Every structure is written in C-alpha cells, then in structure tokens.
Amino acid sequence: MIFLLALFSFCFAESFSLTICSFNIRNFGEAKIAKADVVAVVVKIVSRCDVALLMEIKDNKDKAVHLLMQQLNSQPEMKDDFSLIISERLGRNSYKEQYAFIYRKHRVSVKDAYQYPDAHPGDVDAFSREPFVVWFKSPHTEVKEFIIVPQHTTPEAAVREIDKLYDVYLDVRQKWKSENFIFMGDFNAGCSYVPKKHWKNIRLRTDPEFVWLIGDGSDTTVKGSTKCAYDRIVVHGQKIQQSVVPGSATVFNFMEEFGLNETQALEVSDHFPVEIQLKKSKGFMDKVKSFFRKIKGKRSSE
Ligand SMILES: *[C@@H]1O[C@H](CO)[C@@H](O)[C@H](O)[C@H]1NC(C)=O
Questions:
Q1: Active-site annotation holds for 271
Q2: The architecture CATH gives domain 17-279
Q3: How many beta carbons lie within 10 A of that of residue 278, not counting itself?
Q4: Of 54, 248, 261, 290, whose CB count within 10 A is highest?
Q5: For residue 261, which atom of ligand 1 is closest to its CA?
Q6: Is 261 a pocket residue for ligand 1 (Cβ < 6 Å)?
Q7: Ligand 1, residues 222, 264, 268: which to mutate, most atoms within 8 A of Cβ?
Q8: DSSP state of 247
Q9: Where are the domains of the chain?
C-alpha cells in the first residue's frame, strides 16, 4: 500500500501548470548559435517554458533555430519533447525577423496558425513585423485553448503598433470565434518609446477587457543602467484571466538565476524573458484528490 501511495504521489507530483514565456533573443542567428556557452543558457531558459515565443530571429540561412531545437531535444530528460512553429521572415525591406514558438508537445499542440495580413482597410502595413498568430490546444490546463498574438514593435512606432494589436484582436476573434487571447512580446512599451501621456491612445490599454500582467514599473532590460518595461504580456477573455496563476506573471532574470555577470548575460540578450503560468486542469486535480480520498477510505477500513 505504502509503495502504491509513493508511486502515485510520484506520478502526480509533476505540476501540469503551463509556463508561457516571451523572449527577445536579440539578433539570433549564425553568430549566436556558434557560441556554445550562450546556447547553453538559451537552452536552459527555453527549457523552463512549455510555450516560448522567441523574437528577433535574424537568420537568412534558416539554420540557427533548427540547431537550437536539436540541442533542446537532445536533453535526456526532455528528449524530443520540443516542437517548433515559425513565421516567414517579416519586414518591410531587407531587414527581416521571424517569430518562433517552441512548445512542449506533451503539453500543448497547435490548432491553427495565421499570418496576420496587415491589410486593415485604410491602414495597410501598420506593422513592421505583423503578428504570426498561433492558436494552441492545451488539454492539461483549466483553459483548454488560447490564442497567442506575438509582437515585436519598432521602437519609434511602439505606440501605434501596440494600439493596432486591437485590430488584430478584432480580426482574429472574427476568424476563429474565440475570446482567449494572450498578446505578448517586446512591445518596447516603456521609457522614451511609450511616454505616459500616450497610453490613452492605445486601445489595448484603455479597454479594460485587456489585462496587462507585466506592469509599467517592471524592468525587462538586462543592463543595470536601464529600467524599462519593454516586454509585456496582456490577456483578454474571462476564462484565460481566471486561469492565470495569481502572482505568476514575472520577469525572468536569468542573469541572477544562472549567476552570470552583465557581460555574460548581454551575450545572450539585452532583454529578460517575461512569463506567466496557467492553472492546471481542475478535472485532473479533482481526479487525483478523489483517488487519494478513496485510498484513505480503504486504508482506514483495513
Ligand atoms: C564576467 O565573467 C567572465 C567569466 O568569468 C569574465 O571573464 C569577465 O571578466 C567578467 N566580466 C565582468 C565585467 O565582471
């Protein structure tokens, strides 16, 4: 009996809450993937996440992300668990970036993906890097599906581009008939790029249905000399709002966590990731609880 209990507590001890991260991985391409010490840190950062959005992938040979995937999937404890969905190379001129989502396929799957066409009537080409929107199925969490809208704004156009995410919301909601949205990315939503007086021009901010989980006072920059809340996570939809683990929205200071100095950390990125956790399924926990209740009942009757 004790053995059974131990076995079950072992099996169910693993948390199924889902960690969702957003990381501007600064200029990720050939040069960066060639640095083993940097890649080792990136692997550790991404491995903490069940869904990781990576931005600022700049790689015209389309190799770096695949090499990163190989490293992620060769970790014995997470063998072949990571999948990738990646956008086209996006940008108005020869400067291009890609959005990538790396996700643990035992936890989530991709239901659909949609490259926002950025052709809103009267406002064509609002974004430098139009969102590559991904709809995830998440059977192990309380909320069973959610849509992630990624965005890396152009700093000088940050106010305008964050505001335009509202149009993306209207478009995607219409298309997929779903209300559970996570907007996230390097919005450049701080310091000189979004002055306080401009928040009123940002619908994603003024509409109270959108909840900003990473506050204006956060610091998502690695440099000790700057303090800006550039990277953000915003959720929309009652179900997903209720599914966020209270207090889980944080900036992941990998410099401190991994004991790096500033020079070493800046080799990885000038941004820290931001993250939230979604609550595990109620149904699942209820089953576990009732199982233990049964065992307890049996034991006391023995
Ligand atoms: C950071 O750490 C590296 C490796 O230990 C070292 O070579 C470098 O001098 C350190 N830099 C600073 C600014 O402390």
A1: no
A2: 4-Layer Sandwich (3.60)
A3: 26
A4: 54
A5: 1
A6: yes
A7: 264
A8: T
A9: 17-279
Residue 233 to residue 250: CA distance in whole angstroms: 10
CB 115 within 8 A of CB 85: no
Report pLDDT for 296: 72
Q: Average pLDDT of 116-124? A: 87
Q: For residue 24, what are its two tokens?
A: 């501007």
User: Average pLDDT over the chain, rounded to whole?
Assistant: 92
Tokens at 62, concatenated = 């389309």
For residue 101, list its beta bridge partners. Answer: 53, 85
Angle, helices 2-13 vs 282-301, to 10°: value is 170
Query: Does residue 6 come out as left (phi exceeding 0), alpha (psi in the -120 to 50 range) or beta?
Result: alpha
Instruction: Return the half-sphere exposure (C-beta side, CA atoms, 13 A cut-off) of residue 214.
Output: 30
How many C-beta atoms lie closer than 10 Å to residue 160's C-beta? 16
Annotation marks residue 97 as catalytic: yes
Residue of 237, 87, 203, 104 whose CA lies nearest to 152: 87
Integer Cα distance of 289 and 8 in angstroms = 11
Which of 13-17, 233-237, 245-249 shows the lowest per-residue confidence on average (mean pLDDT)?
13-17
At position 145, the amino acid (one-letter code) is: E
Would the CB of 174 count as within 6 Å of ligand 1? no
Q: What are 181-210's pLDDT values in tens digits?
A: 999 999 999 999 999 999 999 999 999 999
Pocket test for ligand 1, best of 263, 267, 268 (most atoms within 8 A of CB): 263
Atom 2, ligand 1: residue with shortest CA distance: 261
User: Poorest-confidence range of 12-26, 100-114, 239-253, 282-296?
Assistant: 282-296
